[in-house]
Design goal:
heterodimer, A: 495 residues, alpha+beta, 6-stranded mixed beta sheet, 5-stranded antiparallel beta sheet, 31% helix, B: 418 residues, alpha/beta, 5-stranded parallel beta sheet, 36% strand
Chain lengths: 495, 418
């Protein structure tokens, strides 16, 4: 008989756990998510870094310190197997004052303790060789070559697709309302759409992990949101080649300056602690954005004019009581595993967290995991017109003329790319058509014009493929519909 | 260069099938040039098919037409002449091998092609500035559209975006969309204009009175809040230096925010070619044949500068292709010396930048601020023109005779009190 596992939350942690557990033939894995698509919570908006693992103090935050470096190593493998967009470009933690070197030495020491390879302190000459346009105030840096960048939602999508291909069942737009516990054992989860039986419940609910834990009677921690805001600039604005950090302070890793993987200069985040109940507050603020601007200018003085801004956004990090990741099987409720407080470096740690959970299932729950004879570690990335040569385009149009037709002009996304994205949305169970689902799979709408040319066309494609009226297509799920009806709806009085 | 993709060969490739591109392609054919017109939409006309209001064609056709009518007249002529065109064709790259060897690489539903040409007319139009670009913060919600996107939704696809509308910007596009929304039964709750005067043509400003739409001059939208959808927008008053006045904030409840904050010429592909850009127009620096700093690359329409009348756009298309003909026939644009046009008092932008003196030209210019009872003067040649009123919204178009141009080393255009 199979052990049924319910994972709550299809973010980077939940999806990674689903993928790792899909390897075992004696598990039946269900991935439950309240949003219409995967990766739309904490995973959606962050700095998209694969951290080096030098930052987390193993004395204070042993789990973070251990899983970060292990996660970094695993991403090298996962990015290849799953064809996730990534770049390994290294990071510089920049000193601008003599006393900063004391902190860099501490980080170097800590990194060595955590097992980070190849770190070293570089002098001014070498620093400017690595990054010529850095602030002239810079006097040296800690160089961490293993740092990289990744597309966080593309990663969640890739991992979920692979998990589903290996038998994981997804339940999107399924909000968990309760945990069934009998005689100290979990029996399943209650959702707005009925209950899902389970022998093991894994709480990977991000910002809501405290609320889910409380449903199982576990209340020793609380998650509060920490907001970070970002600016993204047009792709003709030059950015750094490496990830640039200032020397950290006791409070923060500081505002990062980087060229994100799509080639846009990005700066952020600041850190603003919100009360625990404000878990939906993703609004950008003038104050926060100005703070980021000022911070970034210290490392990268040649910030472009404001007219070169193509986007600002905010993300929330789930800060747990105590500050370390909470990854454990709870003793008082057999079968309930918390994967909570996965704040930074959660994206980096996710693959390691997933293996940790598999170990917990074996070690603490005593379930012997049997590997499948056939498990597919691979997933193919969807077609991206912008990565094709004209010759490849001509091969692709033989299969489908849509591959030759550009929808998003800023990022060269073809209709074929978009149709493939929609097919894959359906494959993992996306029920509500949204522009964001297409955006995260194709990059359409993320360029210079921010979708004003292509969004109406994407809406048409979604409406057709999902068989709904175009105005019912959403931006990001129910409640964010593109329109209120056909153009005569108000005159008819139907709206 | 791409041995395995089909190669086509032309005298002229026109990039963009809006009014500038169509007019250029028609004129090219009339001049006996072998021309290909490319457009990325499924239909020709650029943005005109979604501009269902009248006000087009008074100069070019000497009658008042709607956008679709204007576009279809050009399209009809294009088809009559047998101009070769491709829709759903997107230019990926333009390469410049030598003066008379350009390659336009484009993709289409039948695949990618390389089109070789002796000259290229670039008429790719403009894009709209969006909410992030003008510093609006707050929630990321549905219901925020640029004016053009809302127009596409309504007039191409028949979708009503919302029912309680706030419009940022009182330029022509914003005002026309205000009327469009009102005509469909939506409540336009405000037009919010940063400057102390309206941005559109006088005839369009009348719309606000016709439909009883409040206009907030010297105000800006700074924040949007809502859950899935826009619920309210925050407006703040600004002083004469455009600085926000603390304490003047107020909220307007609305489900839709329309951004009509101006257009930016689409010139990324020209920049990639090394074309020199004028920071005032956002378009290329050109001579009186509308040739850019890269020989054989010509530009017309809103890629050159943001026009307020489609008639001028079409006129520029024709002018550019006449230049291309000369370029092809003579292996370059000939000129003994270029007369530079400089911006004087209260001139924000002016095109063309260099005049040959070989021919009469139209100068297109915009002033920086509104003034009454002024003179447009070009002191070097003693030219003076009385103007009762000038506004940044209204582009001025003035004709200079070849003989006048030849008299000077440079020309400084200024708009000063009479």
């Amino acid at each position: 008989m199979k052990t049924k596992v319910a994972i709550i939350g299809a973010g980077i942690s939940g999806a990674s756990i689903a993928r790792v557990l899909s390897r075992y033939e004696n598990l039946e894995v269900h991935l439950i998510e309240k949003a219409p698509d995967v990766g739309w919570g904490v995973s959606k908006a962050n700095t998209a870094l694969i951290h080096g693992g030098y930052d987390d103090d193993p004395e204070k935050y042993p789990t973070r310190a251990r899983l970060c470096i292990r996660g970094n190593r695993l991403w090298h493998q996962w990015a290849k197997e799953l064809e996730i967009p990534h770049v390994w470009n290294g990071a510089l933690i920049v000193a601008t004052k003599e006393e900063d070197f004391d902190e860099l030495e501490r980080l170097l020491e800590r990194g060595r303790k955590n097992g980070v390879p190849e770190m070293r302190i570089v002098d001014r000459d070498e620093l400017f060789h690595l990054e010529p346009n850095l602030t002239r105030e810079a006097i040296g840096a800690l160089w961490v070559p293993i740092v990289g960048q990744i597309g966080p939602i593309p990663a969640v999508i890739a991992i979920t697709e692979n998990a589903v291909a290996n038998g994981v069942k997804t339940h999107l737009e399924t909000e968990v309302t309760g945990i069934k516990v009998e005689n100290g054992e979990v029996k399943g989860v209650e959702t707005k759409d009925g209950s899902i039986e389970a022998d093991i419940v894994i709480n990977a609910a991000g910002l809501y992990a405290d609320r889910i834990a409380r449903m199982a009677g576990i209340d020793y921690f609380e998650i509060h949101p920490r907001k970070g805001e970002y600016w993204i600039f047009d792709d003709d604005v030059p950015g750094p080649k490496r990830v640039l950090f200032p020397t950290p302070t006791p409070i923060s890793k500081g505002i990062v300056v980087t060229t994100e993987i799509s080639g846009h200069l990005m700066i952020g985040p600041n850190a603003q602690d919100l009360p625990p109940e404000e878990k939906e507050d993703l609004a950008t603020t003038r104050e926060g954005l100005e703070q980021v601007w000022e911070g970034a200018k210290k490392l990268w003085p040649q910030l472009p004019p404001r007219s070169k801004v193509i986007r600002t956004f905010a993300g929330l990090r789930p800060e747990p009581t105590g500050g370390d990741f909470i990854i454990k099987a709870e003793e008082e409720v057999w079968g309930f595993i918390n994967v909570a407080g996965i704040r930074s470096p959660g994206l980096t740690s996710a693959p390691a967290i997933a293996y940790e959970v598999a170990e917990i299932i074996e070690r603490d729950l005593g379930i012997e995991l049997k590997e499948k004879e056939k498990w597919n570690p691979y997933r193919k990335e969807i077609s991206h017109f912008f990565m094709m040569t004209p010759e490849q385009v001509n091969e692709a149009v033989k299969k489908n003329p849509a591959y030759g037709k550009i929808v998003c002009r800023c990022n060269s996304v073809s209709e074929g790319d978009i149709l493939e994205a929609i097919e894959r949305m359906k494959f993992i169970g996306v029920k509500t058509p949204s522009v964001d689902s297409v955006k995260f799979r194709t990059k359409a709408t993320t360029g210079t014009c921010q979708g004003s040319f292509c969004r109406p066309k994407i809406v048409q494609l979604l409406a057709k493929e999902y068989g709904v009226e175009p105005w019912k297509v959403t931006l990001k799920g129910k409640g964010s519909e593109i329109g209120i009806g056909d153009v005569k709806v108000l005159l008819r009085g139907d709206a | 260069m791409f041995p395995r993709i089909p190669m086509l060969s032309y005298d002229v490739v026109v990039v963009g099938g809006g009014p500038a591109g169509m007019a250029a392609a028609i004129r090219a054919k009339e001049l006996g040039l072998n021309v290909l017109l490319l457009d990325e939409n499924d239909y020709l006309g650029g943005i005109l098919p979604q501009c269902i209001h009248p006000g087009f064609g008074l100069h070019y056709y000497k009658e008042e037409l709607t956008g679709p009518e204007f576009a279809s007249r050009l399209a009809k002529r294009l088809v009559e002449l047998g101009v070769e065109y491709r829709t759903a064709a997107r230019v990926l790259e333009i390469r410049n091998y030598s003066d008379l060897e350009k390659v336009v690489i484009f993709t289409s539903p039948s695949g990618a092609y390389q089109a070789w040409a002796k000259a290229v007319i670039y008429a790719a139009g403009a894009r709209e500035r969006h909410a992030f670009e003008i510093g609006i913060v707050g929630d990321r919600v549905s219901g925020i559209y640029t004016a053009g996107e809302a127009q596409t939704l309504m007039d191409i696809y028949g979708i009503m975006p919302g029912k309680e509308i706030v419009i940022v910007g009182s330029g022509d596009v914003g005002l026309i969309m205000a009327r469009r929304f009102a005509l469909e039964g939506a409540k336009v709750k405000a037009v919010v204009e940063l400057m102390p005067y309206p941005g559109g043509l006088a005839r369009n400003v009348m719309i606000l009175r016709d439909f009883d739409i409040p206009l907030y001059l010297g105000h800006k939208v700074v924040e949007v809040r809502g859950k899935g959808r826009v619920e309210r927008v925050k407006v703040v008053r600004v002083d004469e230096n455009l600085n926000e006045i603390p304490g003047s904030e107020f909220w307007i409840e609305a489900d839709t925010l329309i951004i009509s904050a101006g257009l930016v010429p689409s010139v990324k592909k020209l920049k990639a070619l090394g074309v020199e850009i004028d920071s005032a127009t956002g378009g290329p620096v050109v001579n009186d044949r509308l040739e850019t700093s890269v020989p054989g690359i010509f530009v017309a329409g809103n890629s050159l500068l943001i026009n307020d009348l489609v008639d001028y756009v079409a006129e520029q298309g024709e002018l550019a292709v006449e230049g291309a003909k000369e370029f092809i026939e003579n292996g370059g644009i000939e000129s003994r010396k270029w007369v530079k046009v400089e911006k004087g008092e209260n001139v924000r932008l002016i095109v063309p930048h260099y005049l040959s003196g070989d021919r009469d030209v139209y100068l297109y210019l915009r002033v920086a601020r509104p003034m009454e009872d002024v003179e447009l003067r070009i002191p070097e040649i003693g030219k003076r023109m009385k103007l009762p009123v000038v506004k940044p919204a209204e582009m001025l178009r003035i004709k200079l005779k070849a003989g006048e141009i030849r008299k000077a080393e440079k020309l400084t255009v200024e708009v000063v009190k009479a």
